[in-house]
Amino acid sequence: MNVNSNTPKSTMGPMVIIGALFFIFGFVTWLNSVLIPYLKIACELNHFQSYLVTFAFYIAYLLMAPVSTITLRFFGFKNGMAVGLIVMAVGALLFIPAAMSRTYLLFLIGLFVQGGGLAILQTASNPYITIIGPPESAAQRISIMGICNKFAGGLAPVVLGFFLLSDTDGLTERIASLSAVERAVELDALAAKVIAPYVGIVAVLVILAFVIFKSSLPEVDTDAEDEEVAASNTGKKSIFEFPHVLLGVFTLFLYVGVEVIAGDTIVSYASSQGIPLTQAKFFTTATMISMVVGYVVGIITIPKYIKQERAFVICAILGLLFSFGALATSGITSVAFISLLGLANSLMWPAIWPLALAGVGRFTKAASSLLIMGIAGGAIIPLAYGALADHFTPHQAYWVTIPCYLFILYYAVSGHKVGKAKSR
Length: 424
Prior knowledge:
By secondary structure, this protein is mainly α. The protein has a single domain, classed as Growth Hormone, Chain: A, CATH 1.20.1250.20. 76% of the residues lie in helices and 1% in strands. The protein has helices spanning 12-29, 32-42, 47-50, 52-93, 95-101, 104-131, 138-164, 168-175, 180-192, 195-214, 227-232, 243-264, 266-272, 277-280, 283-301, 308-328, 331-345, 348-357, 364-374, 377-391, 401-413, and strands at 2-3, 220-221. Strands 1-2 form a two-stranded antiparallel ribbon. α4 (52-93) packs across α20 (377-391). One of its GO terms (biological process) is D-glucose transmembrane transport. InterPro entries: Glc/Gal_transptr_bac (IPR005964), MFS (IPR011701), MFS_dom (IPR020846), MFS_trans_sf (IPR036259), MFS_TsgA-like (IPR050375). Belongs to the major facilitator superfamily. FHS transporter (TC 2.A.1.7) family. Residues 14-420 form the Major facilitator superfamily (MFS) profile domain.
């Protein structure tokens, strides 16, 4: 795989631009943690219905992955990123009529379109940052991108929460005593609060799309293979002949699911533990901070002091320990354990991508497309959490994370090696 016109000196420029992209889709992604409790009130939803926010957003990665691949083949990596940003802007724009009519379905369509734009962006940016430098330091580069992403993720709920959740605790107390007409007026006013921030988001997305389109980002050639990779891939005609990639897709599915649970359920969960929403909105930021701590550790230690595979194993074990900690405690302690899942999740994404893409050569675009489809775990697993929260309690619903982390641990230990020995 080659990066056209790229030298070590030119790597910094692309990383800055891709870092800006990771910031943007981190910001947009983690707005969901505020949208879930906000729309639950504004549109009068139960737990399961409110988690359709994550379903609509992340299922787009599954349904739009083939479109993402076609987009990149037609436009290339750089212009494909600009297209993804424009699609995201269209999705954000749909929030305006959704808010004006307080129509939950329209909110969900807007989230789906935003997720579709992000599918295109991620299909391009993740393999781009993986292969733009030496493979042994890929986790380090992705960790830097992760800091950009999670810094935005920590900022997003605070910013949007300022607009949307400033008086929701008082509103939920008042609403029970209001007539149907008075309730509708109050909820319409609450829904309208989302318009101003999303107009700003649309403007930023359009401006960044223009910047990307005019930038000098080098293209990458993912069809080229070195002699060793070409020899190992002789006779292979499909990405489905790489078991470690398929296992990696399922691992990514589970990982994104537990990452979304840690970030997007924590505000509602803290509220269920008796913590006011005006305070609970900060817990997603705590989750993001713990992820950033993990990324910083990864940048410092990988690959100089620890291999990315070993870091992956440690993170999977931490995920199990923190999940059991959350289940075994209650109140602020339990919420803190959910926040600490950010630390456990931090180095999983940076490790899964290079491990899954290792040795696939000319199948990189197809492998990347499948991995992006795995992000649909953010649609399914939080929805399962919501169903369990309705049937049992939001606290006990976190049992859903345990089997996820067990399989992630399997992939970290040995799953990423499956099928590779035969190709050597």
